Amino acid sequence: MLAAVLAAAAVAKLAAGDDSRAALATFGLRGPRTRAGAWGALVVAELALAAGVAAGLDAAAFAAAALMALFAFAVGAALAHGRAGEPCACFGARSRVTPTALARDVVLAAAFVSLPFIPGDVSTETWLAVGLAVAFAAIVALTVAVLALGREVGMLRLAAGAQGALEVPDEGPPLGEGTPLVERFATTTQTRLALAVFSSDGCALCQTVGPSVETLAREPWLAVEVFDEARHADAWAVARVPGSPYAVALDPRSGAVLAKGTFNGLAQLESVLSTAHRRALEAAHA
Fold first, then answer.
1. Which pTM was predicted?
2. What 3-state class would DSSP assign to 244?
3. Can you state the percent helix, strand and coil of the chain, rounding each to 5?
4. What is the model's pLDDT at position 248?
5. Which residues of the chain form CATH 3.40.30.10?
6. Which CATH superfamily is domain 180-285 in?
């Protein structure tokens, strides 16, 4: 079963190769070649360790435990840096950085490291006793981990909430005025806001926040367009963008600029949308 978990993780990465490679930016791998190399190494390692664990090799079990511990460390570091909810591609493109993912990696590491110590010929009653003991220990460990992580994530969200995107009045398009940028969005009846994100190929931070932008683009109420500095120079000129990454939230019908600012993560990007939503409501009431 544990070998099947490793094999399933490798197959999921292969099935969604592009998304899996892009998701590695969540963990600080910024260059496309670096992400591609790390992705290939992970797939090969998971398949090789799956074969070794299935064959009953103690060394493979210990190596798999070390790999799961590495995954747990990476997910924990991402959570600590406020990247909860960003893609991790642990088990396919839909996997996200969450406390549950961290707990899963910790449990898998413990399971792999215990494999070499499981006796080969035991009675059913002994197996049941061992299983109950392991389950009880896992429940206690998970309870402690979830409580600790819940407190830490709560503190991080409070800190992030107090640090919104940097909105300078003289930078970017004027607030409250219409902009032709709105003509570049494909909107529907569900669209409540349009978000223009300005990025650059040579911007390392832009690559880091790329998965966050992709996550927001999946929301049905939000229309998102990314404007590259080289390929969309005209859009940059219209918006008078001071640098990247930069975001402008628009009213999808009138094209009025509701909020704008420089951002460095998902929390600050969400603050642009929150400000835009608040101003739209204030305008509607007025």
1. 0.44
2. coil
3. 60, 10, 30
4. 92
5. 180-285
6. Glutaredoxin (3.40.30.10)
